[in-house]
Structure prediction request, 222 residues.
Amino acid sequence: MEAGGLADSLLSGACVLFTLGMFSTGLSDLKHMRMTRSVDSVQFLPFLTTDVNNLSWLSYGALKGNWTLITVNAVGAVLQTLYILVYLHYCHRKRAVLLQTTTLLAVLVLGFAYFWLLVPDPEMRLQHLGLFCSVFTISMYLSPLADLTKVIRTKSTQRLSFSLTIATLLTSASWTLYGFRLKDPYIVVPNLPGILTSFIRFWLFWKYSPGGRQELSASTNL
Prediction:
C-alpha cells in the first residue's frame, strides 16, 4: 500500500473510532434512564440535534460516495434514534418532546426536498448539502458556549464531562485532518470549532475543577 493510501486508511479508521466513541458516551445516559426509569438530569435536545446532524452527513456521504462518512453517520443515527426512543419511553412530558422532534424532522425533510428536487445538478447539490451540514455542525459545537459561561460564573465544572471533552477533541481533530486530505472544506471548517471549544473546556477544568490539574496531568502522561 502506498504511503498516501495508508495515511488515508489510518485517518479514516481514526475518524470512525473516535466518532463512534464520542457517540457511545450517550450510553451512560441510556443506562441512567433505564435504572432510574426517569429522564432526570438527561438533556433531550443533544440527542435530537445529533441525530439530525448524522442524517444530514449520511446524505452528504452517500452523495459523495464516501464510505467513512456513510459508516460513521449510519451507526450514529441508529444510536441517537435509540437514545430518543428510550427518552420518549421514560419521559412524562411527551408532548413537548414530540413537538421538538416533529419540528426538526420537518426542517430536515424540507431541506432534503429542496436539495433533491430543486437542485438538479449533482455537483451543486453536493455543495449546497455540504454547506447545510457545515452550518448545522458548527451551531452544534457552539451551542454549549452558554454552559461554558455558567462554568466561569459559578467557578464549577460540574456541568462538564471530561471524557466527552477528550472524545470531542480527538473526533474534531481527526475529521479536520481527514478533510484536509480530501480537500473538502465542508468537513474541515465545521470541526475547527470543536477543537477550539475542547481546549476551552480543558482550560476550565484546569482552572476551576478541584482535581482538574491532576486529571489533565494524568491524561497528558498516558
Summary: The chain has a mean pLDDT of 85.
